[in-house]
Recover the amino acids of this structure.
């Protein structure tokens, strides 16, 4: 699917659930083991063939720009000290000149508003959107989506407990083969009694240009924010809309429990940490 070469990373949120950690630092720079959340999302996009990276930033987000740029003093120092592995780690993550753009979202008016702020960088083409706080361990979720995408709008979906629907955008399925869900309706954060299903959207989208036209109207929805879900819902019936159940394991790193679980799961998937961490947890927390 050669059409999808651009990805938008909305990083303009306030991250209030992680205060005070996020007072002077963006939530997306919180590390899972030794890598910030935003870098996992960028690497997932690279694995999906994305070549242009658009960050929609807000206040206190300079650390993200610095993270994806050269750090000449650091590189020189590592070189002088012969720390070649560390040097390679930071050099490998630098993209082609011009491949990374930053757009500023002046007010955090919602995810739909953040995406709309990138409209001038998108032509008549589908574009990927990745939310770094939804971290996916395993195969690149965006690569799976792009491989399946046949036009219109697509979201990554997963089944959630009925009691949790209020934390997600929830879809109404018109067909569901256990892998691809055809979507005939969408609602943002419904209470369980109003939820049309327990199939929830996680933070991966492929959107068609019509969504930007819809976002032009700037309708405020749930939480008095411009919701991407609302704009997508308006496009149902006009273009195809599918949900993809992805193969990886998703962690909600916008919540404390999800962030802690992600740190443990990612550490346990690493040869250099697995044994020592497992032994320590076992000793420290097993009851005598
Ligand atoms: P969240 O709903 O997690 O909000 O945003 P938040 O502000 O980041 O965090 P809390 O709830 O206050 O702790 C979901 C995603 O949408 C982006 C966020 O950066 C995050 O990736 N976002 C949200 C924006 O870019 N702009 C916004 O106005 C709102």
């Amino acid at each position: 699917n050669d059409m999808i070469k651009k990805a938008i990373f909305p990083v303009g949120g306030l991250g209030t659930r992680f205060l005070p950690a996020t007072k002077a630092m963006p939530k997306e720079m919180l590390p899972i083991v030794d890598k910030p959340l935003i870098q996992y999302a960028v690497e997932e996009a690279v694995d999906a063939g994305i070549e242009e990276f658009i960050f929609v930033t807000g206040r206190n987000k300079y650390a993200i720009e610095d993270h994806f740029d050269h750090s000449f003093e650091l590189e020189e120092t590592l070189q002088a000290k012969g720390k070649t592995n560390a040097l390679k780690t930071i050099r490998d993550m630098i993209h082609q000149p011009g491949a990374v753009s930053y757009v500023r979202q002046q007010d955090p008016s919602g995810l739909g508003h953040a995406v709309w702020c990138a409209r001038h960088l998108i032509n008549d083409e589908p574009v990927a959107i990745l939310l770094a706080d939804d971290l996916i361990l395993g195969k690149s979720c965006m690569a799976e989506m792009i491989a399946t995408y046949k036009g219109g709008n697509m979201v990554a979906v997963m089944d959630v407990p009925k009691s949790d629907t209020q934390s997600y955008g929830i879809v109404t399925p018109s067909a569901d083969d256990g892998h691809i869900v055809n979507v005939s309706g969408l609602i943002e954060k419904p209470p369980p009694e109003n939820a049309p299903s327990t199939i929830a959207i996680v933070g991966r989208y492929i959107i068609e240009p019509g969504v930007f036209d819809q976002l032009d109207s700037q309708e405020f929805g749930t939480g008095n924010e411009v919701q991407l879900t609302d704009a997508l819902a308006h496009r149902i019936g006009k273009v195809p809309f599918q949900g993809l159940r992805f193969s990886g394991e998703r962690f909600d790193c916008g919540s404390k429990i999800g962030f802690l679980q992600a740190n443990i799961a990612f550490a346990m998937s690493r040869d250099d940490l697995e044994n020592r961490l497992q032994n320590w947890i076992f000793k420290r927390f097993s009851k005598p």
